[in-house]
Queue: 2 jobs
Job 1
Amino acid sequence: MGRVSQAQARENRKRVVETASRLFREQGTSVSVADLMKAAGLTHGGFYKQFDSKEALIDEAVRHAFDELAQWRTTALEEHEGRREEAQQAMIDAYLSPRHRDNASTGCPAAALAADMARDSGDPEAHRAYSEGVQDFAAWLATDDQDGITRLCTMLGAVALARAVKDSPLSDQILTTARATLSGDLREG
């Protein structure tokens, strides 16, 4: 079998990172290298030509997932012609939706990877990338009236709980209540 060109090697690496980003959000970082490479359509042996270790891939996959989240925010801003609060509300509505709940593999890495980041203290680069991604997202969610960390915690917690009870009417209720809270739709009294 012939050598892979540099361009093909870059494309293969990109495919592995994108696949890992999706699988890690869907199944957690414990996905095996063999399963990951199979999902990417590549051989297991090719992994170590691209990455020094699985931890190196986790680092890149976490950064990639947060880059996708940043693109989601950029798209929301563009769709709302730069009106930040409208873009934030659209993002909150999409985040706290059944579609996002049911599609962890393409959803927010802050929600999907929180348990893995909390359990695994052996990969400081992935933790740094995760922490920076969370801080960036929280800063983007902040308004003059609402703290971004509070908004993110509400969103992330609601999605995590809704996913945990997804086969129950409670799941939709959690999403609806969190969305209403962040939208100011709940009335006192």
Job 2
Amino acid sequence: MGTPRIVAISGSFSRPSKTTALVQHIAGRASDRYGFANVTYDMVDVGPSLGTALWRKQLDDRAQHVLGEIVDANILIIGSPTYKGSYPGLFKHLIDLIDPHELRSKPILITATGGGDRHALMVEHQLRPLFGFFMAHTLPTAVYASDRDFTDYAVSSEQLSKRINEAVGEVGAFFPATTANRVAAE
């Protein structure tokens, strides 16, 4: 087996984006800690064919590539901006195009961003059940960040950094050989 690969997906259509900044930050921390390769995509990377595709085969090559990366990842970091208490519809449509068996047993670190604290339960009430349907392993610690946790689209909150470290620490349970090798190397 090669180097495990993290794929971070942001449900954001904006650039710059706090959601994309959050998943990139977490992917970087996990990569640094475990030596994993990582790549981040957002909804702009998926492209416009998502909005017209009723079936996966109707996606263009760009969207097919991102979907393939999601399915082939060793671990996913999923992030969604919160709109009226939930995730964006096209983000959900992207996930809907994945066959349920393709995410079975895959570790997923779920994250969300929002304007304030009233959206914090989105990770538990929307994202965790969504990936539970796929029988994926959502990590116990979810990460929610509000506007006050960022400065110029970078994570700047000490409290958020602690929560991210806790969530990243849970990744090691799925990759014990990699974790043991990294500890031995240090």
